[in-house]
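2.7 Reproducibility. Because tokenized structures are sensitive to small changes in the input, we list the exact sequence used for DUF1080 domain-containing protein, including any N-terminal residues retained from the expression construct. No trimming or masking was applied before prediction.
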Amino acid sequence: MNNINEYNLSIKYLSVILIVLWSMATACAQAEREVDTVIVGDDTYQVEWKLRESFDEGWEDRWVLEGDSCYISVLDNKLYVNDYMGATIWNVEEYPANILVRLKVIGLDRTDTKTNFNIITHGRENDGSPLVIGPESGRTGAYKPYHDFPNHIATFVYKWTRVRRDPGFNLLSDVQEVASKTNTEYEIVFAVNEERLIYYINGVKHHEVPNEHPLPGGKFGIRTWNTLAFWYDIEIGELIK
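Resulting structure tokens (single pass, no recycling of outputs):
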């Protein structure tokens, strides 16, 4: 009987030790994965960061321009974008389907500026292969070709903010009461999972729509038209369930 009791006690202690070790391993794994709690307005997200862009040395290897009338450079760890006819600047990495994008942008004074601030997520070729970007894509920065392949486009301009799904330029949400201005810093957050697409400006939720046709992961880009602006503190992370 004593042997049985000792055996049961050993099993109990072993179970406790295993639970403690599992908890420690989980905590270490989360720390290594840079899991962060992100609070936006009234919503809370758990995010594993994949990109935290500081536009330091080597940024040119991480970003690719599509735009024949656009000039980009980096000043004070901010991406300086001076565009006239439309441009998209892609990050070269692939990102998962469930993501949170957070960035800051400020439009600068220029004659006839449109303070046109857009982000593109989930960019992929129609056959499911990785999206071809840069000169090899054949795109010049004109808007229409971006409607021909799978992606989400979240738009914030001097007249409205909208969310669309491509291919097909399908309008998912339209808010006319919100307009961008020069010399104003905006923090934009776009969260996408298999259920919903949610878009915030400076902590205020402006779009929340069902994700009826979830897209697989893909490329991320910032897009503009006829705008002079700084883009910075760009962060992209995988949403943790």
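The domain at 34-239 is CATH 2.60.120.200 (Jelly Rolls).
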